[in-house]
Amino acid sequence: MAAPGSAWLISFDMKKIIIYTDGGARGNPGPAGIGAIIADEKGKTLKKISEYIGVATNNFAEYEALILAINEAKRLEL
What we know:
Elements: E1 6-12, E2 15-25, E3 30-40, E4 45-56, H1 58-75
Antiparallel strand pairs: 1-2, 2-3, 3-4
């Protein structure tokens, strides 16, 4: 994922993480994929995730990427 589409700074219990997300669909709607990078506040990558989500719109893929990243951050207890 060379150029993430969005960056989010999220704080849970005073810990800060940065989440880069991107999602897209070929054809809109069409085959869609999502990806995210979770980093600590210094920029160290903690987790890279990507997933094929089936047929979806670009907008749906963008939101799904954020949801995937937040759920993964919670799972990792960040």
